[in-house]
Amino acid sequence: MSKQVALTGATGFIGRNLLTSLVKSRVPTRALTRRQQTGSELSGLVHWINGDLNNHSALNELVEGCASVIHCAGVVRGNSLEDFLEVNLKGTENLLNEICKKAYKPKFLLISSLAARYPDYSWYAQSKSLAETLLLSEKHSGLPRTVYRPTAVYGPGDKEMRPLFSAMRHGFLLAPKVADSRISLLHIDDLVNAVLKWLTAKNTGGIFELDDGTEDGYQWKDIVAIGQDTWNNSIKQVRVPIPLLNTFAHINLLLARIFRYPAMLTPGKINEITHKDWVCDNAPLTTCLGWEPKINLIDAINGASI
Ligand SMILES: NC(=O)c1ccc[n+]([C@@H]2O[C@H](COP(=O)([O-])OP(=O)(O)OC[C@H]3O[C@@H](n4cnc5c(N)ncnc54)[C@H](OP(=O)(O)O)[C@@H]3O)[C@@H](O)[C@H]2O)c1
Fold first, then answer.
1. Is the CB of residue 36 below 6 angstroms from any atom belonging to ligand 1?
2. What is the number of the ligand 1 atom nearest to the C-alpha of 33?
3. CB of 60 closer than 6 A to ligand 1?
4. C-alpha to C-alpha distance for 224 and 167, rounded to whole angstroms
5. Which whole number is the average pLDDT over 113-126?
């Protein structure tokens, strides 16, 4: 079988960065897309396949002849559990079903999320956890399977963390009022490197958490201090009490349902961002693949790689 890779989510923040690195490493890639691709800078090594995670023939074509499948497509916003299950669980199931029809067994990497640690926290967390369970079930025991659970990922092209950094540059930070909470972060380049390591490794089965290796993670005050030191400005912290955040989240969800936009700030998201300890243990992945994160927040902000 060829060394070809199948990639979903290639048009998103993480997937686009992955695709660029695969092309740089001259790895022939089949990538799923829901939008017309003009392709210029990535042409040649990328074979775009039009379709979504509900399009069975597109998924069948996507995995044809591939040695590895990286499943990165997913939704991070939604207004109901069904919104998340439809893509994160059903989409994963559709992809796995097409792989199972093939005579060969490609290795499979699911880009899950650290949120899957606590499926009860949010619809998103539940959908990611159920996708993991499905992948690791007996039905798919014939596939070499790996799950990555990255924490919050940031870097060029990211839309979710960018507003936070941008607000800090303008002198303020809005954060939940939770005492001593420990946040973890991961730079996109480190996640991409972890995926490239997985691609060339032989035995990698299991669930792996990934963060930037900062011992005990970051407190909000650490993030503020890093911003102040780097940008030489004063950053005012506005700490919002949890009940007020929950009220905003309920109102936002209501508006999202009325005006039909996918909500990011939901009661479930508040459960996630007010959790006290999101620090990861990278040791299992380091032992397995020799991967180590190289970029912490200080490096990233100093190198303007945010
Ligand atoms: N960003 C983070 O901090 C973070 C942290 C942990 C885990 N993750 C996981 O990493 C994955 C990628 O996240 P991201 O930040 O790159 O998100 P993103 O920028 O929103 O990209 C999502 C990707 O999934 C595709 N997609 C969504 N629904 C689809 C469907 N029904 N069929 C086919 N493709 C679909 C999108 O296609 P379009 O471009 O057409 O919309 C896009 O390519 C997700 O599974 C997410 O849960 C992200």
1. no
2. 40
3. no
4. 11
5. 98
| Helix (H/G/I), strand (E/B), else coil: 114 | helix
**In the block, residue with structure tokens 């919104």:** 83
Q: Quick check: CB of 9 below 6 Å from ligand 1?
A: yes
Q: Which CATH class is domain 5-154+186-212+279-295?
A: alpha beta
Contact present, 60 and 30 (Cβ < 8 Å): no
201 phi/psi in degrees, rounded to 5: -85, 160
11 CA distance to ligand 1 middle (Å): 8
pLDDT, position 23:
93
14 in ligand 1 pocket by Cβ < 6 Å?
A: yes
Rounded Cα distance, 32 and 47, in Å: 9
> Could you tell me the distance, in angstroms and rounded to a whole number, from the CA of residue 191 to the centre of ligand 1?
14
* Residues 21-40, mean pLDDT to the nearest whole number: 88
pLDDT tens, residue by residue, 187-209: 999 999 999 999 999 878 899 99
Q: Quote the ligand 1 centre to 73 CA distance (angstroms).
A: 4
What lies within 8 Å, CB to CB, of 251 at 6+ separation is none
The residue extents of the domains of the chain are 5-154+186-212+279-295
Q: How far apart are CA 111 and CA 129, in angstroms?
A: 11
pLDDT at 41 over 70: no
Judged against a pLDDT cut of 70, whether residue 42 lies above it is answered with: no
Give the pLDDT score at 1. 44
Alpha-carbon distances, residue 203 vs 34, 174, 266 (angstroms): 32, 43, 38
| CA–CA–CA angle 188, 174, 235 (5° rounding) | 90
Give the nearest ligand 1 atom to 53 CA. 32
**Nearest alpha carbon to residue 182 among 278, 115, 116:** 278
d(CA 56, CA 97): 9
pTM to 2 decimal places: 0.96
